[in-house]
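Inverse folding, one chain.
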């Protein structure tokens, strides 16, 4: 697998983790017994989701970007 492919894979993992965070909050908010709906209620449930998903998604995104930049740098170095 190429470095670009690995970088894309890490960026995809980051997107999946971010989507998981928002889907979890949406599922929690609809399954709760509270009758409140709106952005404040959703923000409460979003804050209730574990913050490790955010940390993991940011880490995966940074690793993915680093791999893509590394691949581009090596490609330009070989062309010179």
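Residues assigned per position:
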């Amino acid at each position: 697998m190429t470095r670009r492919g690995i970088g894309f894979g890490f960026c995809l993992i980051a997107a999946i983790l971010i989507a998981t965070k928002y889907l979890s909050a949406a599922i929690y908010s609809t399954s709760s017994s509270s009758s409140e709906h709106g952005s404040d209620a959703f923000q409460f449930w979003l804050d209730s989701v574990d913050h490790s998903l955010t940390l993991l998604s940011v880490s995966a995104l940074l690793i993915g970007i680093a791999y893509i930049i590394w691949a581009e740098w090596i490609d330009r170095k070989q062309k010179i």
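The radius of gyration is 18 Å. The chain is about 85% helix and 0% strand.
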